[in-house]
Amino acid sequence: SANLIADTATHTPALHRYRREHPDEEVHWLLQDGPARTLFEDMPRLGVCDQVLFDADWDRIRHMDYEGYDKRVRMDVQEAFRIGGAQRLHIAQAFGRMIGVELDAADILPHVPVRSQELGALGVPPRCLVISPLSASNAPVDGMAGNKNLPWAAWGVLIERFVQAGRIDNYVVLLRDTD
């Protein structure tokens, strides 16, 4: 994957399902190296894949220029939008179709390596919706928009990573579904 953080996070349900359905295959997930590395490097513990590899070379990732693999799939967000728009699927389900697995609507929330005890008194609401005015994915494409609906536990880590990377000017955190 050479996609942005939230697009990459939406791959995780499909990869997790693929790994469960193909227990005899080893799944290596290659990601662009950068500030989000710490968010994704613990994915094997969550059962998303067997190993996460990082490379800073976008072109090599996009061309999948790596030897020794029997199967290779480039999880391209534009292709996922095309599949999702044509088949009226959530982007996570479109990523599943790209690798040959089906995701139920209940299975589309990404896997994020944050434990509930790390959130303390805040607790873990089931999900939160973040809409960034800076994200091009908020603009509808063929009637579909890509706003990110992720488990609440993910956003504390994501915000921390954005702040560390200097990629954020302002943000709002909603603590309850009534906020």
Write structural notes for this entry:
The protein is α+β, with helices and mostly antiparallel strands and 179 residues long. The protein contains seven helices and four strands; from the N terminus they run ααβαβαααββα. It has helices at residues 5-9, 12-21, 37-40, 58-63, 77-87, 91-98, 152-164; strands spanning 28-32, 51-55, 128-130, 148-150. Helix 3 (37-40) links the parallel strand 1 (28-32) and strand 2 (51-55). Helix 2 (12-21) runs parallel beside helix 6 and helix 5 packs across helix 6. The chain is globular, with a radius of gyration of 16 Å.
Q: How many DSSP E strands?
A: 4
> Radius of gyration, Cα only, in angstroms?
16 Å
Order of helices and strands: HHEHEHHHEEH
What structural class is derived from the secondary structure elements? alpha+beta
Q: Determine the mean pLDDT.
A: 75
Shape: globular
Query: How widely separated are the two ends?
Result: 34 Å
**Helicity level, as a percent range?**
25-40%
* Strand line-up in the sheet with most strands: 1-2
- Biggest sheet descriptor: 2 strands, parallel
- Strand % is 5-15%
Low-confidence stretches: 125-129, 131-146
Please report the number of helical segments.
Answer: 7
